[in-house]
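Quick one from the shared queue. A colleague (R.T.) flagged Leucine rich repeat containing protein BspA family protein as missing a structural entry in our internal table.

Convert sequence to structure tokens.
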Amino acid sequence: MISTVFILLYILINSSIATCKLEYDNNNCVFISNQIDCEGELIIPNTTSCAGNQAFYNTNLRKITFESESKIKIMSNAFQSSNKLEEIIAPGGFESVGVGAFKDCISLKTIVGYQNTTVFGKNCFQNCLSLHNFTFNEQMMFDEYAFAGSGLISIDLTHIQMSISTYFCSNCVNLHYVNLGSNQVINSYAFANCSSLSQVDTINGLKIVNTSAFMNDPIISIRIADDAEQLFSCAFSGTKLRNLKLPNKSIILEDSVF
């Protein structure tokens, strides 16, 4: 009876380990060619520190662990559309995260090793619906659509000065709170169509709010800086703003700001 239990446990444990055939390109970046058959948990050996373009596109992998202690470079669309992927671990961190690297990974909850990454490409976490938390720092640079349609609940930039890119977190329906800290320039559509975003805090107020930056968000109040320069068209269109105080100095207001 005991031996039978051990055999069953052995089968269960090993059946969860993916049997993907790993291949390597000319840059020693890992990839697989049997995406559909690749599922479960995958451990990538320390012989590589790079996941190639579309390396694990549309796989059924649940967890990926890099053994390497070096920083891992994630190339474009490396894990895109792997909709069962829940966790990725890189003990040495990530050197960069490429364009669309985790786009449409709707089950992705946990990313270990991103905190010291500086470059995040366009659409890198777009539509990651299960990604509720992300810790930002000043070293990070995000291209457009970085978190568009993701599951982020709140964003805290209290002590962080960073560029908030176009469509940065647009269509994030779970996002309810944003602290912009001392950031005063918000790019176009950065937080547009965030249907739960009711509170936005700033330290010194906003100076430039680009086109449709907060469009269709249920925010009630927001601070505009005393030295504000311009509010672009539809910046606050469809919001619930009340008693917005504008500076006494000349400020450029485009059509249909509100």
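Residues 97 and 120 are 5 Å apart (CA to CA).
The longest helix spans residues 2-15.
Added to the table.
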